[in-house]
From TrEMBL:
InterPro entries: Hri1 (IPR031818), Hri1_N_sf (IPR043047). It comes from Geotrichum candidum (Oospora lactis). This is Protein HRI1. Gene3D superfamilies: Protein HRI1, C-terminal domain, Protein HRI1, N-terminal domain.
Length: 253
């Protein structure tokens, strides 16, 4: 499938129990992804930036067919560490993720690998459970079953209305991915230090209507993120550019 939406159902570090303190969704279209992990119940300290992690980048797929690597173009942990720890120590957050993924009996994806544990600041083994979601059911987290995969041609990008946008405005970086009834975007105002310059949006279309609901909306530029059923018509081809509240978005896929 060239496009996919997955929600994380749990993470386990080393021998700790499996838990899920966040609402984590990853949108992937071809070799582009946006990953936003908002806290379910942020503490008083976490409300300043209510995300465990938010980042976007590209998927690098080796020619030999081995597991892909995920690069990070903008990374909230790196940006926060840059402001508090300095450039040299912050670089650890930009290391690409290398993982192995298998499917379990429930149809979920079990991801195993090693990465930096932000609580211990050590590289540790981890296990994550990811659930593929139906791209055309935005009202709820509807898993994609094997039978549905056989019945529906989710590889038809035109039918599912997929696109990738990048910000063209000077002083900003950002990526938006729309897949069917879902949209997710993450962007940075580079003139603002730390996480205060970040904006994160996740929105979904309510089933049976043309109404879209923001599930995540945080930052100074949420009104500059295009959301809605008409976005595919606005960006009517690769290369199309549209200005949304002073930010210029360009369609690249």
């Amino acid at each position: 499938m060239p496009h996919r939406i997955t929600s994380r159902e749990g993470i386990q570090w080393k021998d700790a129990p499996m838990s899920e303190p966040t609402d984590t969704f990853v949108f992937t279209y071809k070799d582009h992804f946006v990953d936003i992990r908002s806290y379910k119940t942020p503490t008083a300290t976490q409300t300043v930036f209510p995300f465990d992690w938010a980042f976007y980048g590209e998927v690098v797929r080796p020619a030999d067919g081995s597991e892909p690597t995920y690069t990070h173009t903008i990374d909230s942990r790196y940006i926060n560490a840059l402001a508090t720890l300095g450039e040299e120590k912050a670089q650890i957050y930009l290391l690409p993720d290398n993982v192995n993924t298998v499917e379990n009996e429930q149809g979920d994806e079990v991801e195993v690998g090693e990465m930096l544990n932000p609580d211990t600041m050590d590289i540790e083994k981890f296990v994550e459970i990811w659930r593929p979601l139906h791209p055309l059911h935005g009202s709820q987290k509807t898993p994609i079953g094997r039978a549905e995969l056989c019945e529906h041609d989710f590889s038809d990008d035109e039918k599912t209305n997929c696109l990738v946008l990048l910000i063209e405005t000077d002083g900003f970086k950002g990526k938006l991915i729309k897949i069917g009834s879902w949209t997710q975007a993450f962007l940075q105002d580079t003139s603002v230090d730390g996480t205060a310059g970040l904006t994160a949006v996740r929105a979904a279309k309510i089933d049976g209507t043309n109404e879209w609901k923001h599930l995540v909306s945080w930052g100074a530029f949420t009104d500059s993120v295009p959301v809605g059923s008409d976005i595919y018509a606005q960006f009517d081809g690769v290369g199309a550019s549209v200005t949304v509240n002073k930010l210029i978005w360009k369609r690249i896929l």
